[in-house]
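User: I'm writing a short report section on ligand binding and want a predicted complex to refer to. Could you take this sequence and acetyl coenzyme *A and write out the structure as tokens? A short remark afterwards would be nice.
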Amino acid sequence: MADNTYELCNEHKGIKEHLPVIEGTQGPHAVDVSKLYRDTGVLTYDPGFMSTASCESRITYIDGEAGILEYRGYPIEQLAEKATFLEVAYLLLHGDLPSSVQLREFEQIIVYHTMLNETLKNFYDGFHHDAHPMAIMVGVVGSLSAFYHDSLDVNDPHHREVSAHRLLAKMPTIAAASYKHNISEPIVYPDNNLSYCANFLNMMFSTPCEPYEVNSTAEKAVNLLFILHADHEQNASTSTVRLAGSSLANPFACIAAGIASLWGPAHGGANEAVLNMLTDIGDVSQIDKYIAKAKDKSDKFRLMGFGHRVYKNFDPRADILREVCKEVLDKLPVDDSPLFELALRLEEIALHDEYFVKRKLYPNVDFYSGIIYRALGIPNNMFTVMFALGRTVGWVAHWMEMMSDPEQKIGRPRQIYKGSPRREYIPIENR
Ligand code: ACO
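Assistant: Sure. The structure tokens for the complex follow:
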């Protein structure tokens, strides 16, 4: 690799190629195979993208072996401790932390985009009262693409920025309205005097009937959870947004596609599944039974909130959340300590079990987030919506990065065809 090329030899096909090597500022190098098919007629095969970098990006860096997560170079631990979510959102979108003037301007822009078009409220009535809020999110966020014709030219950087602001600002309003629809309460309008996170809690929990004061511990916890979920490089939902956007599709439709991908229990849906799992386990005495189920290959059960495609040592977000979980349970008037104790015990047992140790399976961000959401009074079916709220800015930042890349192309993977060879049509009476 000294000359910055990688020699690919395939004696069977008689291929000998010198492929360019691309170096990142941190992390593994990549072999550029983009011209391989053109030059040799051979494809690369990598289901699940185990060894494939799908793009170059300057947004987030993860070192899965060392448990490192950085947004634009800043360690997640520092951002989690010191920043506000909108400060982090600005960082992800613009590349640098804002000055106090820039942050104030940004906050103002977001505040003045939080309202929904009144007609959008009609969409909620189309959903049955017990529709899953993630289903409502996919529908309502996608339906934003029917509005805002003034700024839908995806080739115009200003239009893209306006769409980014609209998405970031309206997402909490849409999410809280999904919850209100579920519980058949009136939708609460945004309050421009509140912070991003306090405004969301107010739209979730206040009613027109009585005053509601946002609890500062709850506001702090939501701020932290949004920061921890804000971006995670090329995960399934972000890659979905990029792939959808690569056809120059409408940005709101692209984000709706990301929400759909996030919903799966192997991705963002895991936080809801963790709580359901802990409730099913119910008691420390049952842990061994569930660990055995997770290890049994004939059983589909997996220990939810465990394992990660990239983190093979620890998930730094889970470490932060374990501490915050304790603090939240101490400060808020809820009695979920037994659930937390159960989670801690499950974690301890799994971390010493050979099956989990050998496969490098550690608690991920979803393992503790659900317990915190529950302590905040957020129902299980809203957990993945909370994830989507934090992740929206990451999706948007990636979409913006991709759209401003002059090399941007439609994403179009190839396949290895394993179906029937060519055959002739047989008339139906002869089959
Ligand atoms: N419980 C039991 N066994 C597991 C678990 C688990 N949670 N996770 C992985 N394994 C096992 C697999 O069975 C496999 O075993 P094998 O080598 O004997 O076949 C091995 O560990 C590797 O697992 P893969 O599924 O191949 O790993 P992959 O990187 O594809 O999957 C994933 C990662 C999807 C996160 C997986 O660990 C999982 O399903 N975890 C539970 C769901 C979850 O918590 N998802 C949230 C992820 S974080 C996020 O999206 C924010």
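A remark for your report: The chain has a mean pLDDT of 93. Residues 266-268, 270, 294, 302-309, 359, 361, 364-366 surround acetyl coenzyme *A (CB under 6 Å).
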